[in-house]
Amino acid sequence: MRKLEFHEYKPTQMQARLFEDSIEKTSFSSPMFIRIFMTSEYAIMFSDGSYFVSAKKRS
């Protein structure tokens, strides 16, 4: 198995952290949070990498 590049594993790590935090910081269930997130603009931006480009522009 090849080692993943930063741009390949970082979005997955961030999404996992969001899902973990949803348990403590939201008033609805994890399946509901996942459904809302996965159909959001943010999920698309994570998938295509544009989230990281727009985050750089803000800093």
The structural class is mainly alpha
Residue share in helices? over 70%
What is the overall shape? globular
Sheet with most strands:
none
What is the helix/strand order?
A: HHHH
How many E-type strands? 0
| Strand-residue proportion | under 5%
The overall pLDDT average reads: 79
How many angstroms does the end-to-end distance come to? 35 Å
- In terms of per-residue confidence, which ranges show pLDDT below 50 for 5 or more consecutive residues? none
Number of helices: 4
Would you give an account of this structure?
This protein is mainly α. 78% of the residues lie in helices and 0% in strands. The termini are far apart.
Furnish the topology, listing elements before pairings:
Blueprint lengths: L5 H20 L4 H9 L2 H8 L1 H9 L1
Name some characteristics of this structure.
4 helices, globular, 59 residues, mainly alpha, 78% helix
Could you provide a short overview of the structure?
This protein is mainly α and 59 residues long. The chain has four helices and no strands.
